[in-house]
Structures are given as C-alpha cells and as structure tokens.
What we know:
Strand content: 25-35%
Radius of gyration: 26 Å
Amino acid sequence: MRNRCSMPDIKNTILPEKSASAASRNKLRWLVAGSTLPMLGIVAAIAVAPQTTLDQTPQQMISESIEVTPAVAASSAQGSFWRAERMQQGDSIARLLARLQVNDSAAEKFLRQGEASRALLQLRAGRQVAALTSEQGKLLKLTFTNTQDQEVVISRNDNEFSYSTHAPALHTAPVMKSGMIQSSLFAATDKADLPDSVAAQLIEIFGSQIDFHHDLQRGDRFTVVYEAMQDENGEQTKAGKILAAEFVNAGKTYRAIHFVNAEGKGSYYTADGKNLKQAFLRSPLEFSRISSGFTVARFHPILQQWRAHKGVDYAAPIGTKVKATSDGVVDFVGQQGGYGNVVVVKHSGKYSTVYGHLSSFAAGLRKGQHVGQGDVIGHVGMTGWATGPHLHYEFKVDGIQQDPLKVALPTNIPLEPRSMAAFRQVSTDMMHRLNLLRNTNLARFD
Length: 446
C-alpha cells in the first residue's frame, strides 16, 4: 500500500521523468475490523547498498505489489463489515461500490448526487475509501479524505443518509523509503513513492557533500526515514522533516541524523555528532544546470573578446527563486553595470557573495537587512550583460573571487558535549532503521 502526498511540482527543470500512475502502483487491498482502519504497512522501493555485508542480518524479500485475498471481518456492530478500496483511474461510483461489495440502490442514488458525488469523483487515483456494510451489502457508513484533506463521513439512519465533514484526527508516524537511481534522482524518488518535499530535503541535507548537478551516477542509492502526518485510517496527508537519511554516491556512503540540541535548535549530524550543515550552500539554486563555469579565459558573448569569468552561471527559467548561500547582511541591492539587477551579501569573517542578472528582488529586500541561509533574495532573470536567463554567482574571500564549486567551504561548529548522550540515543535508533532498510532486498527493483 502506498501513501502519496500532494506536493508542488518541482521536477520540470532537469529531472522530468514520472513513474507509472498511482492506480497501477496501488494494488494492495486490505480489510480491517472495528470502527477504525489502522494502517497495515508501507511497501517502499528498497535496495541493498553496495559493499554491504548481508550475512549479518536476516534477509527479507518484499514484493512491490501484493495481492491480499479478501476476507470478511466483523465490525463492532453485529453482522456488519468494514472494507477498504483505493480509487482507480477513471473510476465511477458504481464500480467503486461494486469493489466495496455494496449492494444498495438507495445508497448509490444518494452518492450520485450533490456534495457526496462531487467529493467522491474529485478523488485522485490511490485515495482510500472505506465502507461499513451489512451482511446483505447495505451501506451503513462510508468514509474517505476529500481533496481538501477533510474527513468525509456518509452515515445511514434507517433509509436516510447524512453527509458531514470534519478535520481529521492526525498523528505523526515515521515512514521509511529507499530507492536506486537509474536515470535521474526524481525518477527514482517517484518510483520509491517519496514525496517531492522529502526529495528536496534530501538534496538540501547532502548538498554540501554531493554535487547533485554533476555527481549522480546510475546505481547511486538513498534510504530515508521521515515524519508523516497520517489520519486515523493510515492515509498519509502531509510529509514532514527527514529524521535520518543515507545516500550512496559513487560507492561512498553519506549519512545524516536529525537532532534537536539543548538550545532547541534542530540540525543534521553525522553518526559521531559532526554538524553536516555547511556555513555555505554550494549552489544558490535548487535545480538548474551550469551554463558557464569559473575560468580565467572565456569568450564573452556580448563583448566579443576573451576575458576571465570569475563566477559560475546557472541557467534556469526566469522567476526561479535565488537563495542566499549563507547567513549574512545585504551590502548592496540594485542595478550595477553588466550585473544588471544584483544583490551583494556580506557574511561573517572574510566572505561575501554576489547574485547577478536578477529579474526582481525579494519583497522588501534592502541594504543592511539580515538574511539567513536559504532565504529567497531574488529571482533569476537576464538583466545587464546577459544573452539568456541565468544567475551569475560569485563567491569572494577577502574581496577576491574564488571558484564556488572547488573552494573549501567553512563548516559549522560540532554538537556540544552536553548534548552527546541524548544524541547517541537518537542516533542509535535511526542507524538501526537505516541498517534495516539497507539490508532488505526487493524482489522487484529494476
């Protein structure tokens, strides 16, 4: 059974591949007794990391698609039964009721009209619908989560039906997913059914160690443990933060554990307590491609002469968000010669960064304003000396431009000693979860 979150589409730049439809992936049928329907489990795309010793952990074979033979389970009401089904692509109300084994013309008539009809037919493929029926197939109750993430309850009282909605009772639960890269990162995260917001976090966490623009290889693998909000039926409504993650890139393993320190500040650390967060991000854009690198000799497309290019150009659509690569203070915001619209940020010590050719600035951005790492300071454009939409980014040390892709970036301070005991407890649990997924082999993983 898969749970997907509805997330903004962030894949239409360099990683456009999509997996099969949710209907073809959600083949698990299940049946639960009682007035609630707890989640039976989550099947994830899981792979075995390279150079892993497998004989230390019992192997478990998991198939991506599981068919469960339906069985009738009595509910707390005598002679009534809960059944749950997933909406399928192109489903009609009649087809859904047939799979739920509802044989009730009055119920079907009610569900074909008004709010009930609209709410059901708006459900995307993969959404779960649960029905409480009598032995004869009479519908007693129907529940599902609508497109506004509200709990819908359709109840029967004699031959009258009522329709109501309310905010679902949500709880937080850890979810574990893993996958292997065959063509692109987002094709792999789609196949693993990993929400887009979690995939973006994965890039942010390991962005200072892995160049996701250039370093990814076929066969790289990732394993993620993340928080998810789930309703009382086990339906995942929203993905939260990553609790632990592993990324195997070119045979090298990187791991991250989320921990909230004694001051209440959360960050990601290695298993031995080293802070993974770099003082600077490698790139001010989440997804783009490098159109021109740092070089001492480049033929300028506008000036038509050879000259040094002391920055990195990131090609991206106009309007793409540009983020500050580190905490700092805005030193300049406005127009400046060939840079066009430009923002200059001064950071602690001897560092500063430059963001040129912007189409616009973040609302209210001004000189002297403090900005944090990851804050949006502007948007990609092609102002100044630019032949196409891109961001010109410079990294300066003592006022001299350095190649941001190669320069050794300063790191943040490690975890303080007084938090180490609490961190080790969290780390041990999360490392166990990651090891469990790493040593689990998928029966079908291509």
